[in-house]
Specification:
Length: about 500
């Protein structure tokens, strides 16, 4: 038995609606006002890039529409809502009488719905015979399950079951199949009138993050910091001229974003009839897996990049314990697109470039390069910094080169900002086991600096403070960890020592 799939445009299908049979249906006008507030994917780490093929953040979408209602029962259709809408979250305001029921229209245009709605309708069968393309009129005589049976002048036959490459051409789209996601609400108006309604709902399929670029200055003690708000939409619906905002911080969500290929769209999988002399020896193969996410280059072609000047940066506002960043001008949140708006542009921010190693029972890990700054106004910053990846550049002649990449978590004003961005190549450490007692171990660490300049070095000890004795340099506690800071001279070395007491 062989499986064949007939191609057509795919949109999202939802649960079937239930509306009053005798109520007139009224389409609302296009949105007069739109607001899109995007929340980050709840589980995505700051150093993980946005997955444009599967956006697991969400948005709160608010729109105003005008509709003219008759007296009595009526069904209002809001065409062009987000394909990822959570219908249970939809709220319609502006009607004193309220809403009797709401439904998300089913059977949006898809390969399966188009095939199913075309039962008994004329179609055109296109076959390629050698180099010739032959067309033949027919009538569809089967549903979307099983073989595609078509009645032609020659009789009944199964399409695409003779080893060729058949295709079914439809003469039109049945009017019952809308081509955009549509939310319907049933209302009961006491009189005919024109009203302005506000529709608000949550929708999956969005995401955003901050993207930082830090460029070290030649002195190595300061850096220029540029930041962007990068927002992305994986929805098939565009939201033009929208008031756009993003929210930083963790908002608790109990559910998670569905896989793009698993949004409830029944696929069209047609099985060819078996020849009698070739009985089926095995079960029917399962339907093909969901299509892969769009290729990065395809997404790049759809990418909408906006570069704004310093005066048109996003504006930060408080939202309880969260931070809201408002795009100053209305913008298009385009379907399947990505946009960037300036967040921050600060020059000459004081920074410390240091080298760090983590010790576990005296054993060192890799030496890492870390960029540290203090988020205060008198230190060049003093603004809430949302989480996101950081690209670190250094000057090289008349240009600049990438030397590493790291990330920052959400940082409030007053906090230290540390960016672990690269593995050191010119700083080495060697551990030594100096002595052993009944309940203690003495460790040593030789730090060798092969650079032509002095460096700041920290050994981070993975142990509780009470277990560390006799450190060769004063211990420093930062962010809940013990550190041994030291300056290593240019082309020189330093030896660190400490004693660790057994837990017993």
């Amino acid at each position: 038995m062989r499986v064949c799939a007939l191609a057509a445009a795919v949109l999202v299908a939802f649960a079937a609606p239930s509306v009053a049979q005798d109520a007139p249906t009224i389409d609302s006008a296009a949105p007069q006002k739109l607001a899109v507030t995007i929340y980050r994917a709840p589980e995505r780490a700051p150093d993980t890039a946005i997955d444009r093929g599967w956006l697991r953040g969400y948005a709160l979408i608010t729109e105003q529409r005008t509709v003219t209602l008759p007296a009595g029962l009526a069904v209002i259709r809001f065409k062009g809502v987000s394909a990822g809408i959570l219908p249970e979250s939809a709220i319609v305001s502006g009607l004193p009488e309220g809403v009797r029921e709401k439904n998300l229209d089913a059977d949006l245009l898809s390969p399966r719905s188009l095939y199913g709605a075309s039962f008994g309708r004329p179609v055109t069968i296109r076959r390629r015979t050698g180099k010739r393309l032959v067309e033949e009129a027919g009538i569809l005589r089967s549903g979307p399950d099983g073989a595609a049976i078509v009645q032609t002048a020659a009789g009944f036959e199964a399409v695409d079951c003779h080893g060729g490459a058949d295709a079914i051409g439809y003469h039109g789209v049945p009017p019952a199949l809308p081509d955009t996601p549509t939310l319907s609400v049933q209302v009961d108006s006491p009189a005919a009138r024109t009203v302005t309604l506000t529709l608000s709902y949550l929708a999956w399929g969005f995401d955003w993050q901050a993207n930082y670029v830090a460029t070290l200055r030649p002195d190595g003690a300061s850096a220029d910091l540029l930041a962007w708000v990068t927002l992305a939409s994986g929805d098939v619906t565009s939201f033009p001229d929208a008031e756009t905002m993003v929210v930083a911080g963790k908002v608790k969500r109990e559910d998670s974003a569905p896989y793009p290929g698993g949004l409830g769209v029944p696929s069209l999988v047609l099985q060819c009839l078996s020849e009698p002399e070739e009985p089926v020896q095995q079960s029917v193969p399962p339907p093909p897996p969901p299509p892969p996410p769009p290729a990065p280059m395809a997404m790049e072609r759809a990418m909408d990049i906006v570069v704004t000047g310093a005066k048109r940066m996003v504006k930060q506002e408080d939202l309880g314990d969260l931070k809201l960043y408002r795009v100053p001008d209305r913008t298009n949140v385009a379907a399947m697109a990505q946009k960037q708006v300036a967040l921050l542009d600060r020059g000459g921010v004081p920074v410390d470039l240091l080298y760090r190693v983590r010790l576990s029972d005296g054993d060192p890990g890799a030496v890492r390069m870390v960029l540290r700054a203090t988020n205060r106004a008198d230190r060049g910053l003093g603004v809430p910094l949302p989480a996101g990846p950081v690209a670190v550049f250094a000057p090289h002649g008349r240009t600049r080169l990438l030397i590493g990449e790291g990330a920052v978590t959400d940082k409030a004003i007053g906090e230290d900002v540390e960016i672990d961005f690269a593995t050191a190549t010119e700083v080495r450490v060697e551990s030594t086991h100096l002595a052993t007692g009944k309940h203690w171990e003495d460790y040593g660490l030789v730090v060798r600096n092969a650079t032509p300049r002095p460096i700041r070095f920290e050994a981070e000890i993975d142990a509780v403070p009470a277990r560390i004795r006799k450190p060769s340099v004063p211990l420093l506690r930062r962010d809940g960890t013990l550190r041994m800071p030291v300056t290593v001279p240019a082309n020189g070395s330093v030896t660190l020592r400490y004693r660790q007491i057994d837990e017993a």
